[in-house]
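Work Package 3 (structural annotation) set out to generate three-dimensional models for the target panel prioritized at the project kickoff. During this period the team completed the workflow that converts sequence records into discrete structure tokens, so that structures can be stored uniformly alongside our sequence database. As a representative example, we reproduce one entry of 443 residues exactly as it appears in the project archive.
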Amino acid sequence: MQAVQNEAGRLYFLDAPGGTGKTFVISLILANIRVQGKIALALASSGIATTLLDGGRTAHSALKLPLNVQVIENPTCNISRNSAMAKVLQQTAIILLDECTMTHKKSLEAIHHTMQDLRGNQNIFDGALILLSGDFRQTFPVIPRSTPADEINACLKSSFMWRYVRKLTLNINMRVQLQNDQSADRFSKQLLETGNSKVQIDNTNGLISLPNNFCTIFQSKEELIERVFPNIIQNHRNHNWLSERAILAPKNVQVNDINYLILEKLPGAVISYKSIDIALNEDDAVNYPVEFLNSLEPPGIPPHFLNLKVGSSIILLRNFNAPKLCNGTRLAVKILMPNLIEATILTGKAKGEFVLIPRIPLIPTDMPFEFKWLQFPVRLSFAMSINKAQGQTLQVCGLDLEEPCFSHGQLYVVCSRVDTPNCLFVYAPNEQTKNIVYTNVLD
């Protein structure tokens, strides 16, 4: 706040593990600056985190960051000098980037180069105040077909800008203090041990054992579903009940299986929506027939056969109307029409509002050819991937470890979605699993 008053541009990082009150502190900073009539730009790397911030936007949406930032040598934001966003960036008192650990280092560098260009200054971010916040125990940017070295190289700590960062820390777990719950206190310490890779590893198979006082372990997927979603036929109409629980899994294959099992339990008829897929290049239309396009499932794209029921929990896959409807917003289906879905928002500042979702054209950017996918931009969200759930806070969380975690911080992320061990339910064969942590990044 002193740096804001003095208009001294600096780069700060707020290191805050789950439960230490990061969102509360950030909201207070934003409110304090805005009440003085200054501009505070609230950004986040994920839509879920965005919905928790007043006036929040995803960084990609607000700053027009390139989607394929990792393959560009010197990326910049697609903002012209005369645009409204350029004027905002020239006058802003602070730019806040939440869940920054999921952000590719080149995105931060692109913002830096853009700020220098807009303000005509060669200082770091041209003297603007930047506040990053997050926890490096959580997941890193997703790099397709990457090695651990690729992931580490993509994280912010590998950027040339990290040496300019001033670190601030939140240490005290406020959830534990407010609840005065001893089991939550022990759970908080166990979480940090998991995130810091301090849990004892079995040398014979490289796995860790999940202690009984850390979670409730089940031996079948059906038991896990029943415990996380008890009496779902009676309870699924209760939006508060639906919004506070989910099952998480490392891979989308497991997520789809669980969503299908839960959808079958709901009453009512299944409504199926087929996508319309078209190759944009006429030459490609010959090489890639419609049947082949229908079989593809690129990341971030809804399935060709989208099966839904009234009362289903769904998640948005595109930014629609930020910050109300962001990529990652969870909704409950109210009415299913041929070309519209009426739904109720389950999470974020707009919780409880009714919205209409149309079919929209989706064009994947990470394919060797261009094709258009016309479909509702939603998926079922009774179960979600761990990476998609980062930033979510849940009252009841299930974890399917039939396939172990495969990337840094995934186990820590899923376990830190809840406050106490009584609310964490795990399906883990042999009560063991992998805990992948790149300790050299945490130092």
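The longest strand covers residues 330-336.
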